[in-house]
UniProtKB/TrEMBL annotation:
Residues 39-305 form the G-protein coupled receptors family 1 profile domain. Its main location: membrane. This is Sex peptide receptor-related protein 2-like. Gene3D superfamilies: Rhodopsin 7-helix transmembrane proteins. The keyword Cell inner membrane does not apply. PANTHER family: G-PROTEIN COUPLED RECEPTOR, G-PROTEIN COUPLED RECEPTORS FAMILY 1 PROFILE DOMAIN-CONTAINING PROTEIN. Signal peptide: none annotated. The gene is LOC106062402. Keywords: G-protein coupled receptor, Membrane, Receptor, Transducer, Transmembrane, Transmembrane helix. SUPFAM superfamilies: Family A G protein-coupled receptor-like (SSF81321). One of its GO terms (molecular function) is G protein-coupled peptide receptor activity.
Length: 329
């Protein structure tokens, strides 16, 4: 009984909690994350080809790197969640460390991607509200600095989880052996609780700011497009604004839909809603849905870029030496 409680407390997968509905998400996440890894590698190559001398390309390049890290961690996490590994005696150590490390990395990269997406929305918001001053406000150096601050802040926010559950020797009764594994420190649960609440605040803040900035972008672009339609010299620019508004709206809709369950999960966990803590069945199922949606959000960007950006499509065809190059629009 004590062993079961210890495993559940440490957040290690246990064969008793593998319900049939979880297998769909577990085995869906493996091919989905693989597709996302390939897609984001392509994105990184394309944006590098275009050049990282603009804030737009820097933002999208950094987002692709963060998504690549998140999907790679999800791939490892899904593999380490197999019941066969946990049942394999000595593999207990491998499963616990492998799973815990991949979960931490996925959480880290996913939150970095969230805040980079928020920064992209913020930059686009400034572009449509202060078009004459945006180049002076957001230079490439300031964009790099912003990304560095985001990364450092998320690492700082996640590090208390590692402090609360460090590596150490622990007795595994099932195999009667002492191995190196994860264990709670004396104040570990308290530290983890505070860190969890702080990360929940960061997540909600990023989500809400993203919605606000994107709403301002769409409204402002619609207003500008109506005004420019009355001026024949600005009709071409009006078409580009409509295309940009459509692209921003598409990305925003995907992000909002895919990120909403994660926010709901954090809220229920912080409020300690029954059935949404530990390794309860509803919590695990909801968690796998969140992981799948996050993978979709990180993977589908390549489709948006390819269909809505002629520059991306041109660079894509140039890199992969495809015969039928797209016409510039």
């Amino acid at each position: 009984m004590s062993q079961q409680i210890e495993q559940k407390t440490l957040g290690t997968p246990n064969s008793d909690v593998f319900f049939p509905e979880l297998y769909f998400f577990l085995y869906l996440n493996v091919p989905l994350s693989l597709c996302g890894i390939i897609a984001n590698c392509i994105n990184i190559i394309v944006f590098s080809k275009q050049g990282l001398n603009t804030s737009v390309n820097l933002n999208l390049f950094s987002l692709a790197v963060a998504d690549l890290g998140s999907l790679s961690s999800l791939f490892l996490e899904s593999l380490s969640f197999k019941p066969a590994l946990e049942r394999a005696g000595i593999a207990y150590l491998t499963t616990e460390l492998f799973y815990a490390s991949s979960v931490t990395l996925r959480f880290l990269f996913a939150r970095i991607a969230w805040w980079i997406t928020t920064f992209i929305s913020f930059e686009r918001c400034l572009c449509v509200t202060l078009p004459l001053h945006i180049k002076q406000v957001l230079t490439t150096k300031r964009t790099i600095l912003a990304h560095a601050v985001i990364t450092a802040s998320i690492i700082t926010a996640v590090s208390p989880f590692l402090v609360a559950r460090p590596l150490g020797s622990k007795l595994i009764p099932s195999i009667n052996t002492t191995l190196i594994g994860l264990f709670y420190t004396e104040n570990g649960p308290y530290i983890e609780r505070i860190a969890f609440c702080f990360n929940a605040i960061l997540q909600f803040t990023s989500y809400i700011l993203n919605i606000i900035f994107t709403a301002v972008i769409i409204l402002q672009l619609n207003l500008n497009s109506r005004w420019r339609q009355n001026l024949s010299s600005l009709k071409d620019r009006s078409k580009r604004d409509k295309k940009l508004a459509k692209m921003v709206g598409c990305i925003c809709s995907i992000f909002i839909v895919c990120a909403m369950p994660s926010c709901v999960n954090f809220m229920m966990s912080v409020l300690q809603v029954s059935g949404f803590s530990g390794w309860d069945r509803s919590f695990l199922t909801f968690r796998e849905i969140i992981m799948t949606l996050e993978a979709i959000n990180s993977t589908i960007n390549i489709i948006v870029y390819y269909n809505m950006s002629s520059n991306y499509k041109e660079a894509f065809f140039s890199i992969f030496c495809l015969k039928d190059k797209p016409s510039s629009t």
